[in-house]
Amino acid sequence: FLSKSDWRHNMKYLPLTKSAELTKNYRRGGWITLIIGLLIFSLVSSLVIQIGSFFSDSFGILIQLYFYSLVILAIILYSKFVEKRDIQSLGISSKNFTKNYSFGAILGFVMIGATIIGNLIMQSISISINNNVNILYLMLLLFGFCIQGFAEELLFKGYIMNTIASMSNMTIGIVINSVIFSLNHAINPNVTSIGLINIFLLGFLLSLIFFYSDNLYLVGALHSSWNFFIAILGLPVSGKIVNETIFRIKTTDSLSILNGGNFGLEGGLLATIILIVGVGTCLSFIKIKLEVAL
To answer: Which of 47, 169, 199, 213 has a Cα at 20 to 30 A from 59?
Structure first.
């Protein structure tokens, strides 16, 4: 087994994944091309948010989620025609699609489920059934979150993480994209310091999973599942509220440090614990993978 010093050395110099290797070998352009790409994607993302704001809350959320397909299109076109790289370099692979997507969705459900159970045990939330559920809306919401979750993972893991890793190393790619992922949520409604820390931890966990699996569909499904299951519980998703939900959850104001208050579960300490456990578990799997590779 690896000694502690060997483990620290391997974490510092994580090997490039196959998709990151493809990025290194075929991508054209340096840091300037990366910055220009990020500016373009930021403008497209801002446009998507503005389009959603023109409509009523419920319909506006759907419009915004579905228009994230423009972000996906922008990243793929920019990567192909400006940087001369294919979608495989972004971690997009149809191999074992059903298995990877299902596993990612289940992971997201389990993590949110554990956070909910923890909050119920601590009596920081209470749950009731919403008798006015719009099933069609929920189905549209599910597909919308599938698009939005994949778009964000394509941007932060497929594009930012792989590009930075190809120009420096994988560890720097993991850390920087996780920081940017957290800062991207800094302007969300009712954001808190714990919320930003948890968003960083979520981004870090997703980055580790992407490194381990080298499959964008897996992390995209986890991200989508995480957001969707928070939404249908009637809780804010990073501060944003979906009204047509299956459940109604009432939070205990005095225990907002546990339940996240108006920012949602992602702003609570119980989510912090779940995410830290997830990061530790993933690091253990990565350690085993590195040991086997020796």
So the answer is: 199
